[in-house]
Specification:
The complex is a heterodimer of chains A (221) and B (232). Chain A is mostly helical and 221 residues long. Chain A contains eight helices and no strands. In chain B, 79% of the residues lie in helices and 0% in strands. Chain B has one domain. Chain B is globular and about 55 Å long. The chains are: A mainly alpha (221), B mainly alpha (232). At the A-B interface, helix 6, helix 7 and helix 8 of A face helix 4 and helix 5 of B.
Protein backbone atom coordinates (compact mmCIF):
# COMPACT_ATOMS: atom_id res chain seq x y z
CA UNK A 1 0.00 0.00 0.00
CA UNK A 2 2.73 2.45 0.97
CA UNK A 3 4.57 1.29 -2.15
CA UNK A 4 1.54 2.20 -4.28
CA UNK A 5 1.41 5.66 -2.74
CA UNK A 6 5.15 6.14 -3.26
CA UNK A 7 4.83 5.21 -6.94
CA UNK A 8 1.81 7.47 -7.37
CA UNK A 9 3.64 10.39 -5.79
CA UNK A 10 6.70 9.73 -7.95
CA UNK A 11 4.60 9.72 -11.14
CA UNK A 12 2.81 12.89 -10.05
CA UNK A 13 6.12 14.55 -9.22
CA UNK A 14 7.47 13.58 -12.65
CA UNK A 15 4.45 15.08 -14.44
CA UNK A 16 4.54 18.27 -12.40
CA UNK A 17 8.27 18.64 -12.95
CA UNK A 18 7.81 18.18 -16.71
CA UNK A 19 5.12 20.86 -16.65
CA UNK A 20 7.30 23.17 -14.55
CA UNK A 21 10.18 22.82 -17.00
CA UNK A 22 8.15 23.34 -20.16
CA UNK A 23 5.45 25.62 -18.70
CA UNK A 24 3.09 24.68 -21.55
CA UNK A 25 -0.20 23.53 -20.17
CA UNK A 26 -1.08 25.85 -17.30
CA UNK A 27 -0.32 29.13 -19.13
CA UNK A 28 -2.29 27.90 -22.15
CA UNK A 29 -5.19 26.82 -19.95
CA UNK A 30 -5.12 30.13 -18.07
CA UNK A 31 -5.32 31.97 -21.36
CA UNK A 32 -8.12 29.66 -22.45
CA UNK A 33 -10.29 30.31 -19.39
CA UNK A 34 -9.80 34.07 -19.60
CA UNK A 35 -10.80 33.89 -23.27
CA UNK A 36 -13.87 31.88 -22.27
CA UNK A 37 -14.88 34.72 -19.93
CA UNK A 38 -14.34 37.27 -22.70
CA UNK A 39 -16.52 35.24 -25.05
CA UNK A 40 -19.20 34.87 -22.36
CA UNK A 41 -19.17 38.65 -22.05
CA UNK A 42 -20.13 38.95 -25.70
CA UNK A 43 -22.51 36.00 -25.68
CA UNK A 44 -24.55 37.30 -22.75
CA UNK A 45 -25.52 40.85 -21.96
CA UNK A 46 -23.87 40.95 -18.59
CA UNK A 47 -24.63 43.69 -16.07
CA UNK A 48 -24.37 43.83 -12.30
CA UNK A 49 -27.89 42.43 -11.84
CA UNK A 50 -27.70 39.30 -13.97
CA UNK A 51 -24.00 38.53 -13.39
CA UNK A 52 -24.60 36.28 -10.33
CA UNK A 53 -27.05 34.22 -12.39
CA UNK A 54 -24.78 33.85 -15.43
CA UNK A 55 -21.44 33.50 -13.65
CA UNK A 56 -21.96 29.94 -12.28
CA UNK A 57 -22.77 28.66 -15.75
CA UNK A 58 -19.78 30.39 -17.30
CA UNK A 59 -17.57 29.07 -14.50
CA UNK A 60 -18.56 25.44 -15.09
CA UNK A 61 -18.47 25.68 -18.87
CA UNK A 62 -14.95 27.11 -18.78
CA UNK A 63 -13.83 24.60 -16.16
CA UNK A 64 -15.26 21.58 -17.97
CA UNK A 65 -13.58 22.41 -21.25
CA UNK A 66 -10.31 23.38 -19.59
CA UNK A 67 -10.46 20.05 -17.77
CA UNK A 68 -10.92 18.14 -21.01
CA UNK A 69 -7.83 19.80 -22.46
CA UNK A 70 -5.80 19.26 -19.29
CA UNK A 71 -6.66 15.57 -18.90
CA UNK A 72 -6.32 14.91 -22.61
CA UNK A 73 -2.83 16.41 -22.56
CA UNK A 74 -1.54 14.34 -19.64
CA UNK A 75 -1.83 11.13 -21.59
CA UNK A 76 -1.20 12.60 -25.03
CA UNK A 77 2.28 13.64 -23.89
CA UNK A 78 3.01 10.09 -22.72
CA UNK A 79 1.75 8.75 -26.01
CA UNK A 80 3.91 11.04 -28.12
CA UNK A 81 7.00 9.90 -26.24
CA UNK A 82 5.79 6.27 -25.98
CA UNK A 83 6.75 6.55 -22.32
CA UNK A 84 3.55 5.04 -20.94
CA UNK A 85 4.57 1.61 -22.22
CA UNK A 86 7.91 2.02 -20.49
CA UNK A 87 6.21 2.91 -17.22
CA UNK A 88 3.85 -0.02 -17.51
CA UNK A 89 6.77 -2.39 -18.04
CA UNK A 90 8.13 -1.52 -14.61
CA UNK A 91 6.84 -3.54 -11.65
CA UNK A 92 4.79 -0.54 -10.55
CA UNK A 93 1.08 -1.31 -10.45
CA UNK A 94 -1.03 0.35 -13.17
CA UNK A 95 -3.35 1.69 -10.48
CA UNK A 96 -0.47 3.58 -8.87
CA UNK A 97 0.61 5.04 -12.22
CA UNK A 98 -2.97 6.05 -12.93
CA UNK A 99 -3.37 7.63 -9.49
CA UNK A 100 -0.15 9.59 -9.95
CA UNK A 101 -1.17 10.92 -13.33
CA UNK A 102 -4.66 11.81 -12.08
CA UNK A 103 -3.14 13.60 -9.09
CA UNK A 104 -0.79 15.64 -11.28
CA UNK A 105 -3.54 16.46 -13.75
CA UNK A 106 -5.89 17.59 -11.02
CA UNK A 107 -3.17 19.83 -9.56
CA UNK A 108 -2.63 21.37 -12.99
CA UNK A 109 -6.37 22.00 -13.23
CA UNK A 110 -6.26 23.58 -9.77
CA UNK A 111 -3.57 25.88 -11.16
CA UNK A 112 -5.96 26.82 -13.92
CA UNK A 113 -8.76 27.36 -11.39
CA UNK A 114 -6.45 29.72 -9.49
CA UNK A 115 -6.68 31.95 -12.57
CA UNK A 116 -10.32 31.27 -13.43
CA UNK A 117 -11.90 32.08 -10.06
CA UNK A 118 -10.19 35.46 -9.49
CA UNK A 119 -10.81 36.36 -13.14
CA UNK A 120 -14.49 35.55 -12.71
CA UNK A 121 -14.63 37.81 -9.66
CA UNK A 122 -12.79 40.55 -11.52
CA UNK A 123 -14.89 40.48 -14.69
CA UNK A 124 -18.30 39.48 -13.31
CA UNK A 125 -18.14 41.13 -9.88
CA UNK A 126 -19.31 37.95 -8.18
CA UNK A 127 -17.93 37.07 -4.74
CA UNK A 128 -14.91 34.79 -4.43
CA UNK A 129 -15.77 32.95 -1.25
CA UNK A 130 -14.65 29.79 0.53
CA UNK A 131 -17.88 27.90 -0.34
CA UNK A 132 -17.26 28.48 -4.06
CA UNK A 133 -13.64 27.37 -3.82
CA UNK A 134 -14.62 24.29 -1.80
CA UNK A 135 -17.23 23.23 -4.36
CA UNK A 136 -14.86 23.70 -7.30
CA UNK A 137 -12.03 21.80 -5.60
CA UNK A 138 -14.31 18.91 -4.59
CA UNK A 139 -15.64 18.64 -8.14
CA UNK A 140 -12.06 18.68 -9.45
CA UNK A 141 -11.24 15.46 -7.58
CA UNK A 142 -13.93 13.35 -9.20
CA UNK A 143 -13.61 15.05 -12.57
CA UNK A 144 -9.88 14.31 -12.57
CA UNK A 145 -10.47 10.63 -11.74
CA UNK A 146 -12.99 10.15 -14.55
CA UNK A 147 -11.22 12.47 -16.99
CA UNK A 148 -7.90 10.68 -16.60
CA UNK A 149 -9.50 7.25 -16.97
CA UNK A 150 -11.03 8.19 -20.30
CA UNK A 151 -7.97 10.18 -21.36
CA UNK A 152 -5.90 7.03 -20.82
CA UNK A 153 -8.42 5.15 -22.92
CA UNK A 154 -8.65 7.55 -25.84
CA UNK A 155 -4.87 8.01 -25.99
CA UNK A 156 -4.79 4.59 -27.69
CA UNK A 157 -7.72 5.26 -29.98
CA UNK A 158 -8.18 6.99 -33.32
CA UNK A 159 -9.89 10.41 -33.31
CA UNK A 160 -9.10 10.86 -29.62
CA UNK A 161 -9.95 14.55 -29.58
CA UNK A 162 -13.45 13.62 -30.65
CA UNK A 163 -13.94 10.75 -28.30
CA UNK A 164 -12.70 12.29 -25.03
CA UNK A 165 -15.50 14.87 -24.68
CA UNK A 166 -18.14 12.41 -25.87
CA UNK A 167 -17.20 9.88 -23.20
CA UNK A 168 -16.23 12.21 -20.37
CA UNK A 169 -18.86 14.95 -20.40
CA UNK A 170 -21.90 12.72 -19.70
CA UNK A 171 -20.09 11.12 -16.77
CA UNK A 172 -19.14 14.53 -15.39
CA UNK A 173 -22.77 15.61 -15.26
CA UNK A 174 -23.24 14.53 -11.61
CA UNK A 175 -20.40 16.86 -10.64
CA UNK A 176 -21.85 19.70 -12.69
CA UNK A 177 -25.30 19.13 -11.15
CA UNK A 178 -24.01 19.24 -7.58
CA UNK A 179 -21.19 21.72 -8.17
CA UNK A 180 -23.44 23.98 -10.19
CA UNK A 181 -26.02 23.96 -7.43
CA UNK A 182 -23.38 24.73 -4.79
CA UNK A 183 -21.91 27.67 -6.72
CA UNK A 184 -25.35 29.04 -7.59
CA UNK A 185 -26.31 29.02 -3.91
CA UNK A 186 -22.99 30.56 -2.93
CA UNK A 187 -23.67 33.36 -5.44
CA UNK A 188 -27.07 34.09 -3.95
CA UNK A 189 -29.55 31.64 -5.54
CA UNK A 190 -31.99 29.77 -3.34
CA UNK A 191 -31.25 26.18 -2.38
CA UNK A 192 -29.23 24.21 0.11
CA UNK A 193 -25.47 24.44 -0.13
CA UNK A 194 -24.73 21.68 2.36
CA UNK A 195 -26.72 19.07 0.44
CA UNK A 196 -24.88 19.91 -2.78
CA UNK A 197 -21.54 19.71 -1.04
CA UNK A 198 -22.42 16.37 0.55
CA UNK A 199 -23.40 15.07 -2.90
CA UNK A 200 -20.08 16.21 -4.34
CA UNK A 201 -18.25 14.29 -1.63
CA UNK A 202 -20.38 11.19 -2.28
CA UNK A 203 -19.69 11.36 -6.01
CA UNK A 204 -15.97 11.88 -5.35
CA UNK A 205 -15.80 8.74 -3.24
CA UNK A 206 -17.91 6.70 -5.68
CA UNK A 207 -15.99 7.66 -8.80
CA UNK A 208 -12.50 7.60 -7.27
CA UNK A 209 -13.14 4.03 -6.10
CA UNK A 210 -14.65 2.97 -9.43
CA UNK A 211 -11.96 4.53 -11.58
CA UNK A 212 -9.19 2.96 -9.54
CA UNK A 213 -10.89 -0.41 -10.00
CA UNK A 214 -11.24 0.17 -13.75
CA UNK A 215 -7.78 1.71 -14.30
CA UNK A 216 -6.12 -1.70 -14.55
CA UNK A 217 -8.26 -2.71 -17.53
CA UNK A 218 -7.66 0.54 -19.36
CA UNK A 219 -3.92 0.94 -18.77
CA UNK A 220 -3.08 -2.72 -19.37
CA UNK A 221 -4.37 -2.54 -22.89
CA UNK B 1 -37.52 -19.07 -43.48
CA UNK B 2 -34.70 -19.60 -41.03
CA UNK B 3 -35.19 -19.33 -37.28
CA UNK B 4 -34.25 -15.63 -37.17
CA UNK B 5 -36.81 -14.73 -39.77
CA UNK B 6 -39.42 -16.73 -37.90
CA UNK B 7 -38.54 -15.01 -34.64
CA UNK B 8 -38.68 -11.59 -36.33
CA UNK B 9 -42.08 -12.40 -37.83
CA UNK B 10 -43.33 -13.53 -34.41
CA UNK B 11 -42.06 -10.29 -32.82
CA UNK B 12 -43.83 -8.21 -35.46
CA UNK B 13 -47.01 -10.21 -34.83
CA UNK B 14 -46.72 -9.57 -31.10
CA UNK B 15 -46.26 -5.83 -31.65
CA UNK B 16 -49.35 -5.83 -33.87
CA UNK B 17 -51.21 -7.55 -31.04
CA UNK B 18 -49.97 -4.86 -28.64
CA UNK B 19 -51.08 -2.15 -31.07
CA UNK B 20 -54.52 -3.77 -31.21
CA UNK B 21 -54.74 -3.74 -27.43
CA UNK B 22 -53.55 -0.13 -27.24
CA UNK B 23 -55.92 1.25 -29.85
CA UNK B 24 -59.01 -0.96 -29.53
CA UNK B 25 -59.07 -2.56 -26.08
CA UNK B 26 -57.69 0.08 -23.74
CA UNK B 27 -60.23 2.72 -22.64
CA UNK B 28 -59.68 6.38 -23.53
CA UNK B 29 -58.23 8.48 -20.74
CA UNK B 30 -60.69 11.03 -19.32
CA UNK B 31 -58.19 13.88 -19.11
CA UNK B 32 -55.54 13.22 -21.76
CA UNK B 33 -57.81 11.43 -24.28
CA UNK B 34 -55.99 9.53 -27.02
CA UNK B 35 -52.60 11.07 -26.21
CA UNK B 36 -52.47 8.85 -23.14
CA UNK B 37 -52.15 5.79 -25.41
CA UNK B 38 -48.51 6.81 -25.97
CA UNK B 39 -47.88 5.77 -22.37
CA UNK B 40 -48.02 2.02 -23.12
CA UNK B 41 -45.22 1.92 -25.66
CA UNK B 42 -43.27 4.76 -24.01
CA UNK B 43 -42.92 3.01 -20.66
CA UNK B 44 -42.46 -0.43 -22.25
CA UNK B 45 -39.59 0.70 -24.43
CA UNK B 46 -37.98 2.46 -21.45
CA UNK B 47 -38.08 -0.83 -19.54
CA UNK B 48 -36.75 -2.69 -22.58
CA UNK B 49 -33.91 -0.17 -22.86
CA UNK B 50 -33.00 -0.68 -19.20
CA UNK B 51 -32.97 -4.42 -19.82
CA UNK B 52 -30.69 -4.02 -22.84
CA UNK B 53 -28.27 -1.84 -20.90
CA UNK B 54 -28.28 -4.40 -18.11
CA UNK B 55 -27.14 -6.89 -20.76
CA UNK B 56 -24.33 -4.46 -21.66
CA UNK B 57 -23.35 -4.16 -18.00
CA UNK B 58 -23.34 -7.89 -17.30
CA UNK B 59 -21.71 -8.72 -20.65
CA UNK B 60 -18.98 -6.14 -20.05
CA UNK B 61 -18.32 -7.35 -16.52
CA UNK B 62 -18.09 -10.98 -17.66
CA UNK B 63 -15.77 -9.96 -20.49
CA UNK B 64 -13.46 -8.12 -18.11
CA UNK B 65 -13.41 -11.19 -15.84
CA UNK B 66 -12.72 -13.94 -18.33
CA UNK B 67 -12.45 -12.48 -21.84
CA UNK B 68 -15.53 -14.30 -23.06
CA UNK B 69 -16.27 -13.32 -26.64
CA UNK B 70 -19.87 -14.45 -26.23
CA UNK B 71 -20.38 -11.97 -23.37
CA UNK B 72 -18.79 -9.22 -25.43
CA UNK B 73 -21.07 -9.89 -28.40
CA UNK B 74 -24.11 -9.76 -26.14
CA UNK B 75 -22.86 -6.43 -24.80
CA UNK B 76 -22.47 -5.08 -28.33
CA UNK B 77 -25.93 -6.25 -29.32
CA UNK B 78 -27.48 -4.92 -26.10
CA UNK B 79 -25.96 -1.46 -26.56
CA UNK B 80 -27.31 -1.05 -30.07
CA UNK B 81 -30.78 -2.38 -29.31
CA UNK B 82 -30.92 -0.40 -26.05
CA UNK B 83 -30.05 2.76 -27.94
CA UNK B 84 -32.92 2.11 -30.34
CA UNK B 85 -35.38 1.66 -27.46
CA UNK B 86 -34.05 4.75 -25.68
CA UNK B 87 -34.62 6.72 -28.88
CA UNK B 88 -38.18 5.39 -29.08
CA UNK B 89 -38.75 6.32 -25.42
CA UNK B 90 -37.46 9.86 -25.92
CA UNK B 91 -39.44 10.48 -29.10
CA UNK B 92 -42.67 9.02 -27.70
CA UNK B 93 -42.16 11.07 -24.54
CA UNK B 94 -41.68 14.27 -26.50
CA UNK B 95 -44.76 13.58 -28.61
CA UNK B 96 -46.74 13.12 -25.40
CA UNK B 97 -45.22 16.17 -23.71
CA UNK B 98 -46.11 18.63 -26.48
CA UNK B 99 -49.92 18.40 -26.05
CA UNK B 100 -49.83 17.72 -22.29
CA UNK B 101 -47.06 20.01 -21.04
CA UNK B 102 -47.16 22.41 -23.98
CA UNK B 103 -43.49 21.82 -24.75
CA UNK B 104 -41.45 19.02 -26.27
CA UNK B 105 -38.76 19.18 -23.65
CA UNK B 106 -38.40 20.09 -19.98
CA UNK B 107 -35.19 19.80 -17.98
CA UNK B 108 -36.76 17.32 -15.68
CA UNK B 109 -34.88 14.59 -13.80
CA UNK B 110 -36.33 11.74 -15.80
CA UNK B 111 -35.86 13.44 -19.16
CA UNK B 112 -32.35 14.63 -18.41
CA UNK B 113 -31.16 11.26 -17.18
CA UNK B 114 -32.70 9.48 -20.17
CA UNK B 115 -30.95 11.89 -22.52
CA UNK B 116 -27.68 11.29 -20.67
CA UNK B 117 -28.31 7.55 -21.00
CA UNK B 118 -28.70 7.96 -24.74
CA UNK B 119 -25.51 10.01 -25.03
CA UNK B 120 -23.50 7.53 -22.94
CA UNK B 121 -24.44 4.54 -25.05
CA UNK B 122 -23.97 6.47 -28.27
CA UNK B 123 -20.44 7.06 -26.91
CA UNK B 124 -20.20 3.32 -26.22
CA UNK B 125 -20.89 2.55 -29.87
CA UNK B 126 -18.39 5.24 -30.89
CA UNK B 127 -15.69 3.59 -28.77
CA UNK B 128 -16.45 0.30 -30.45
CA UNK B 129 -16.00 1.92 -33.81
CA UNK B 130 -12.86 3.94 -33.06
CA UNK B 131 -10.86 1.60 -30.83
CA UNK B 132 -8.66 -1.14 -32.25
CA UNK B 133 -11.11 -3.92 -33.13
CA UNK B 134 -10.89 -6.96 -30.92
CA UNK B 135 -9.54 -6.97 -27.40
CA UNK B 136 -8.97 -3.22 -27.06
CA UNK B 137 -12.41 -2.22 -28.29
CA UNK B 138 -14.04 -4.86 -26.11
CA UNK B 139 -12.18 -3.84 -22.95
CA UNK B 140 -12.64 -0.10 -23.40
CA UNK B 141 -16.29 -0.52 -24.27
CA UNK B 142 -16.84 -2.75 -21.24
CA UNK B 143 -15.47 -0.01 -18.99
CA UNK B 144 -17.68 2.59 -20.68
CA UNK B 145 -20.70 0.31 -20.38
CA UNK B 146 -20.16 -0.26 -16.68
CA UNK B 147 -19.60 3.43 -15.91
CA UNK B 148 -22.55 4.36 -18.07
CA UNK B 149 -24.89 2.07 -16.21
CA UNK B 150 -23.75 3.47 -12.87
CA UNK B 151 -23.92 7.04 -14.01
CA UNK B 152 -27.57 6.88 -14.93
CA UNK B 153 -29.05 6.32 -11.46
CA UNK B 154 -26.55 8.88 -10.16
CA UNK B 155 -27.74 11.51 -12.63
CA UNK B 156 -31.33 10.49 -12.07
CA UNK B 157 -31.26 10.87 -8.30
CA UNK B 158 -29.00 13.92 -8.28
CA UNK B 159 -31.55 15.80 -10.37
CA UNK B 160 -34.63 14.24 -8.74
CA UNK B 161 -33.95 15.94 -5.46
CA UNK B 162 -34.48 19.37 -6.95
CA UNK B 163 -37.07 19.45 -9.68
CA UNK B 164 -39.37 17.00 -11.32
CA UNK B 165 -42.25 17.24 -13.72
CA UNK B 166 -42.42 13.77 -15.24
CA UNK B 167 -45.41 11.72 -14.01
CA UNK B 168 -44.59 9.36 -11.16
CA UNK B 169 -44.92 5.60 -11.32
CA UNK B 170 -48.51 4.52 -11.93
CA UNK B 171 -48.03 0.76 -12.21
CA UNK B 172 -46.62 0.03 -8.76
CA UNK B 173 -48.96 2.60 -7.22
CA UNK B 174 -51.97 0.67 -8.51
CA UNK B 175 -53.32 3.82 -10.16
CA UNK B 176 -54.43 2.19 -13.43
CA UNK B 177 -57.86 0.72 -14.16
CA UNK B 178 -57.66 -3.03 -14.93
CA UNK B 179 -58.08 -2.67 -18.72
CA UNK B 180 -55.25 -0.16 -18.89
CA UNK B 181 -53.07 -2.33 -16.69
CA UNK B 182 -53.76 -5.37 -18.89
CA UNK B 183 -52.93 -3.36 -22.02
CA UNK B 184 -49.74 -2.14 -20.43
CA UNK B 185 -48.66 -5.63 -19.36
CA UNK B 186 -49.36 -7.04 -22.84
CA UNK B 187 -47.45 -4.19 -24.50
CA UNK B 188 -44.55 -4.60 -22.10
CA UNK B 189 -44.34 -8.36 -22.68
CA UNK B 190 -44.46 -7.86 -26.46
CA UNK B 191 -41.86 -5.09 -26.38
CA UNK B 192 -39.52 -7.20 -24.24
CA UNK B 193 -39.97 -10.09 -26.68
CA UNK B 194 -39.16 -7.72 -29.54
CA UNK B 195 -36.03 -6.54 -27.72
CA UNK B 196 -34.95 -10.13 -27.10
CA UNK B 197 -35.42 -11.01 -30.77
CA UNK B 198 -33.51 -7.91 -31.84
CA UNK B 199 -30.64 -8.78 -29.52
CA UNK B 200 -30.60 -12.35 -30.83
CA UNK B 201 -30.45 -11.18 -34.44
CA UNK B 202 -27.80 -8.59 -33.63
CA UNK B 203 -25.82 -11.23 -31.77
CA UNK B 204 -25.91 -13.41 -34.86
CA UNK B 205 -24.74 -10.49 -37.02
CA UNK B 206 -21.88 -9.76 -34.63
CA UNK B 207 -20.87 -13.43 -34.72
CA UNK B 208 -20.82 -13.37 -38.51
CA UNK B 209 -18.93 -10.07 -38.53
CA UNK B 210 -16.30 -11.47 -36.16
CA UNK B 211 -15.80 -14.44 -38.47
CA UNK B 212 -14.30 -17.82 -37.60
CA UNK B 213 -10.73 -16.48 -37.84
CA UNK B 214 -11.39 -13.62 -35.45
CA UNK B 215 -12.89 -16.04 -32.98
CA UNK B 216 -9.71 -18.06 -32.72
CA UNK B 217 -7.50 -14.99 -32.75
CA UNK B 218 -9.49 -13.12 -30.12
CA UNK B 219 -10.24 -15.73 -27.51
CA UNK B 220 -6.69 -16.92 -27.09
CA UNK B 221 -4.99 -13.59 -26.26
CA UNK B 222 -7.82 -12.58 -23.96
CA UNK B 223 -7.54 -15.78 -21.95
CA UNK B 224 -3.76 -15.60 -21.93
CA UNK B 225 -3.86 -12.02 -20.76
CA UNK B 226 -6.10 -13.00 -17.91
CA UNK B 227 -3.69 -15.67 -16.79
CA UNK B 228 -0.80 -13.26 -17.07
CA UNK B 229 -2.48 -10.67 -14.89
CA UNK B 230 -1.08 -10.61 -11.37
CA UNK B 231 -3.28 -12.15 -8.72
CA UNK B 232 -4.32 -9.44 -6.31
Amino acid sequence: MSNTIAVALAVARKDLRAEWRTRELVPALAQFVVLALVIANFGFQIDSRNAPMIAPGVLWMALVFAGLVAFGRTFAAEREQASLEAMLMTPASPVAIFAGKALAASLLLVGCEAVLLPALTLFFGTPLSAPIIAAVLLATIGMAALGCLFAAMVARVRARELLLPVLTLPLWIPFIVAGGQAVQVAMGASGTYDQALALLIDFDILFVVLTSLAARFVLDE
Amino acid sequence: MNKYEKAAAAAVGLMALAAGAIFFYAPTDALQHDVQRIFYLHVSSAIAAYGCFAVVLVGGAIYLRNGSLVADRFARAGALVGLVFTTVTLIMGMLWAKPIWGTFWAWDARLTSTLVLWIIYAGYLLVRRLAEPGRQAARFAAVVGIFGFIDVPVVHFSVTWWRTQHPGPVIVNDALPPEMLATFLVTMACTLALAAVMIAIRYRLETLADGPVAERAEVVPAVKAREAEPVQ
